[in-house]
Amino acid sequence: MDFNTFPPTISQQDFPLHWNFTVHAIIADQQGKLVAYTNGCDVVNENHQLMENGDTLNPGLVSLYYCREDGQYPAEQECTFLPDFEDPNKYHLFHIEFVPAPDTNNYYYDIPRRFYHSIVEKPSADQPAVMTQKQLLVSDIPLSQSMAAVRHANGRDWWIVFPRFMTIYDHPIFQAYEHPDSVTHLDNLWNFVNTHPEQFLDTLGFVRYLFTPTGVEGPFEEQIIGGLWWPGQIRTAEFSPDGSKYVLGAPFSGLQLFDFDRCTGLFSNPITIDGYSGIIAGRGMAIFSPDSKYLYLHDSQKLYQRSLSEPITETLLGDMSNPPFYVGGNHWFNPMNGPDGKLYLAAGDTNTMHRIEFPNRPGADCQVKRHVIKLPTRYVMRSRFNFANYRLGPIDGSSCDSLGIDNVPLANFRYDLEDTLQPLQLTFTDVTDYEPSTWQWFFGDGQSSNEQNPVHVYAHSGTYQVCLTASNANGSSTFCRTVGIGLVGTENPAWEELIQAYPNPVSEQWTILINGVDHPVKMTLSDCTGRYIATHSLTVGINDLNINDLKPGVYFWEVRDKNVGLKKGKVVKI
Where does 494-573 sit in CATH, by number? Predict the structure, then answer.
């Protein structure tokens, strides 16, 4: 999914290293161009090829088995990229190696023990990245797999945080089952663990490092805070976009919410969110809204929105326990914040994704759209990309604001045609970074607004140059975008890229790629006499049509959204 286009476009990339390659961490440059990504096993460049020195990111028995058999490292959020402090072509990859548990040599008993710092660099702006360094920072230290990074309040450095390491492998009950000789013996152990989680609870705490231009400092003194925690597979370790909140989620332990001090790196005010314990299947259990005012949480079947300020409210947004039947896709998985200010959720073993259109709005007004995005192929999104908010600035005026770095707004916006009775009405959403406090919109028709997220009705269809100037006490910036509304495709250049039909000529399977809308649209096919041959309902993404029964000849097609023509063309059937 490429967010450099508006709306984002979708394409399929076949990956040569492993059929089940699953991305764990990803990094792009300041312009949003892909640089590298990894599955925790190998590091891949922008051309989707194994980069130089990028193989065997983590050595050892665990990597040998899982990377070869499963296509990913056996962890979640065990690695993340951070940009360099000065060189825009240099990136830092922090990752954890799993090792067999003490006195075992079995990859089933793997625990995180070694903390690495690797460096990925682009030799030049037009050359693919290569790995130039892999340094072991800490050996044989108890670390959890769920790494999260957030910018220090000085606007430069990075906190890297791990939940306190807790393992069942040293528990007396587990030791009684040590060195299982059969699968049955192993199954008996885990059946006991899963049915008696209360016997394995331990105290929650955090291990913290600080990444600065001079290197990695820490670990600092472990902070013990919060309630009892089950030492299991953590599904969520996430900072809010503004860095003030942190949420942690795991099976049996449920969800805990903390305040976070970006100056000291310390947690406070632990809150247990009830109703989310016993979750085993849920992945990526929670995520914050872009404005950090709401928390979206799920148990894989039900999706909720929880307010983070008084009065605390929790609203059920969607229930997949008894939805309309959709093969393999009746779940909420791995929510992620998009650069466009929307939330994207995996649906399970299917070829669709869900999307939350306006996640900064309360309750049902946030508009949850199920299965609104069609993907090129069925896909199980088993892991959420682990990346920080790279555009989080300093806390201006705080005791840590000592480096002279200021939040200067970087203006950006998107627009949506909501499902209203006014086809010339657009909703504009501010997605400016670095804490803007005032907004000035110019809609290209002589009208303006100083609201943050205005709704504007145009008097006539046409193409308009819309500009937003976002400002605060430190400065301002302006971003402009061409907006076409109420136009057919030949009049609106944007649809030339957003809607594509191929191949041409075509013999059997014809593909229509739809982007730029969030609901089904209609395509009509007619012959050279103007007689309608077929009508198809198309969804966002790739739509494959079998036209094998059509006679050879020239046909004309048009895609329409209600009464508005989006794009038209012709295709030759051979």
Answer: 2.60.40.3080
